[in-house]
Amino acid sequence: MSLRASFSGHAGDFAYDVSLDADAELLVLYGHSGAGKTITLRTIAGLARPEAGTIEIGGRVVFDGASRVDEPPQARRTGYVVQEVALFPHLDVERNVLIGVEGSGDAKARWSQLRGALHLDGLDARRPHELSGGQQQRVALARALVRPTDVLLLDEPFSALDDVLRAELRAELKRLQRDFGIPIVFVTHDLREAHLLADSVAVIDAGRVLQLGPRDDVFTRPSARRVAELTGVRNLFTATASGDRVEVDGLELQLPANGTNGPVDLGIRSERCNLRRFDPDEPPPTNCFVGRLVEDLAFGNTHTLRFEPDGPGPRIEVEVAARPYEVLGVAERDRWVIELPAEDLLVMPRG
Amino acid sequence: MRAPRNWWVALPVLFGLFFVVPLLGLVWFALTEGDVASELRSSATWEALRLSVLTATLTLVLAVLLGTPLAYLLAASEAGWARLTATLLDLPLVLPPVVSGIALLTVFGRRGYLGDPLSEAGLTLSFTTAAVVLAQLFVAAPYYVRAAYAGFAAMDPRFEGVAYTLGLSRWRTFRSVTLPLVWPALAGGAVLCWARALGELGATLLFAGSLPGRTQTMPLAILSAFESNAGLAGAVSIAVILVAFALVLMVLLHRASTPSGAYR
């Protein structure tokens, strides 16, 4: 099973031009609110009509702007789950699940399977308001899967749940994905959730998918400054690259390999920077510079430290776990050597 | 929770009395000065009551059949015409019913703009029972459409989207998802519409006249009794019957239209 979608259109004043590809995997569509995540899901489900493009679900063309193919949502075989309107409030659990498939023996068999897999035994006669938030989302998932479904579209399905429940549901979702072997498109604006769930990540911003790829690729090799920003890279500079070296604010840094020449965007995650004790008699080694600690924000298990350069080098934010923070005695000195390891430097073409 | 025991509780009590006392006065006056018993025996009274119930019910049926799709369309559309129409719906609520009657006459009356084509087609509307229904529909249907519109507009349209992806046709979705969700609003609007139609006087008088057995509904019968020799006493006797009848029906309707649980 696979999903191939590439379409463009308008929703009011908002213009979008989206390309997505997913095989039987969990694709997280990650972006801020208003980035176009929901309209993307609605378009794939057939609830919104793009102006051009093609959508292919499980090998079937369900939309083609050029040849005027436009299957209605009823025929697209998508499972669509939205957190706020997960279940029909006037129907009990069983009637919610079977509403689209009444009388079908296959569906009944699938429902009794799903009921066990999703821990919903004994809830058939309950109304949605008598269920916990986690149970409601499970019933909604069961309903989406009780018909033959070629792709599952989930619009922030767990956003109203607490962390423990979310972790449980994520594990169940991963299992369902493997059992059913269909693509799941999971919309979220939560970076941690994206990290935990994704096989692949699509970063969407202002109606466009900026980068799509395996999770680790997207998080460790952002294709552009905006992707780095959206995926939580706090240190971003303009720099000049030449060969395997890059210069930022008068500081020359070593890169692991030759790359582009000329102006680039340079980034490094704050948790990837290292701190070393400053010794005035020793010149800073490669990829190191001296900084003055100007701000120290404690978050319990981590500290976020801000440094001003004491000579050449950029302003930088460093995240240190509580233990090394105490062992190093960060609070006791204000001059530190900051190391930006070559393999953690993100070099992006200037967009 | 502690019940409020402040002086201002007197205000709602006074306000309630403002409605109850005149109604009690009406009943007392009818029992002492009027002759409710003979009105109850009079076939003319029953004829008027029958006509009232018949026309008000027909009005409600038409309002629901024609008004529900209109309200749904208005709520679903974001176009300018939809907003304009929704605003115009309030107009019949503001107009004095007499003006509504005149407006109907200018179009559907015998000498109205559509009078000639209508009579050529063998249709004379004014001063018929059909005219009573039209007058009531003009005045009372907006109550239903407004309530239904508010109900549809308050519903999250994503419920319908989810239903479509589950394979439910548009009609099935409307019947099994949309209607149950907006049911309280529709039922409330229907009760209002029917009640307003039952009490309709001004537009009916102008457009349909007051012919006993054909266009004379209860309100018109009361007015006609008031203007006859029977005077106030006669009018009040019929009025009490209408009040009693309306009261019983409103109680029954409220029971039927209020959901028992969180949802029916």
Model description:
- The complex is a heterodimer of chains A (351) and B (264).
- Chain A is α+β, with helices and mostly antiparallel strands and 351 residues long.
- Chain A has helices at residues 37-45, 93-98, 105-117, 133-145, 163-180, 191-197, 215-220, 225-230, 322-328; strands spanning 3-11, 14-22, 26-30, 52-57, 60-64, 69-70, 78-82, 151-155, 184-188, 200-205, 208-214, 235-242, 245-248, 251-254, 262-268, 274-277, 288-298, 302-309, 316-321, 335-339, 346-349.
- In chain A, the strands form 4 sheets. Chain A has a 6-stranded mixed beta sheet with strand order 7-8-9-3-10-11, sandwiched between helices. In chain A, strands 2-1-4-5-6 form a 5-stranded antiparallel beta sheet, covered by helices on one side. In chain A, strands 14-13-12-15-21 form a 5-stranded antiparallel beta sheet.
- In chain A, strand 17 (288-298) and strand 18 (302-309) form a beta hairpin.
- In chain A, helix 3 (105-117) packs antiparallel against helix 4 (133-145).
- The relative contact order of chain A is 0.12.
- The model of chain A has no long low-confidence stretch (mean pLDDT 93).
- By secondary structure, chain B is an all-alpha fold.
- Chain B has a domain at 54-211: MetI-like (MetI-like fold).
- The longest helix of chain B has 34 residues, at 43-76.
- Classes of the chains: A alpha+beta (351), B mainly alpha (264).
